[in-house]
């Protein structure tokens, strides 16, 4: 079972950050929430904080991560948190493309399949 922690990062205007997977990776060109695999010895919050530093150059803490939704597909368990408080400006540090989406725009992005139920929870939260 692969556990993946991801975040709906929400800005002051109520938009959510989406990340487009780079060429050469599975689901290249499709959009997802920033995050990644929980590594051995990490808890979910620690993994997410590490991924946000590595991928986006931003800092947050566990008290700013609110559990929002999950989805299990095959051997993948996706855990989505909402986060409105973080330090720094999200910057694409790993070749990805970033976009801030309004709630009504989320489904106009070509989302990775497992993210669709999660995206619905984000849209409902922000609408
Ligand atoms: N970060 C993230 N991963 C997701 C989401 N939805 C989803 O199905 N995934 C899948 O969960 C896995 C996350 O792995 P990852 O981000 O740590 O690693 P990766 O495949 O990008 O790169 P890798 O080659 O370094 O393992 C990928 O298989 C990815 O397709 C999502 O919203 N965010």
TrEMBL record:
Entry coiled-coil feature ranges: none
Keyword Metal-binding in record: yes
Classification via InterPro entries: MutT-like (IPR047127), Nudix_hydrolase (IPR020476), NUDIX_hydrolase-like_dom_sf (IPR015797), NUDIX_hydrolase_CS (IPR020084), NUDIX_hydrolase_dom (IPR000086)
Molecular function terms from GO: hydrolase activity
CDD domains given in the database record: NUDIX_MutT_NudA_like (cd03425)
EC number of the protein: 3.6.1.55
Cofactor or coenzyme needed: Mg(2+)
Residue ranges of domain Nudix hydrolase in the record: 1-124
Catalytic reactions on record: 8-oxo-dGTP + H2O = 8-oxo-dGMP + diphosphate + H(+); 8-oxo-GTP + H2O = 8-oxo-GMP + diphosphate + H(+)
The entry's keywords: DNA damage, DNA repair, DNA replication, Hydrolase, Magnesium, Metal-binding, Mutator protein
Family (UniProt): Belongs to the Nudix hydrolase family.
Name by which UniProt lists this protein: 8-oxo-dGTP diphosphatase
Organism annotation: Parvularcula lutaonensis
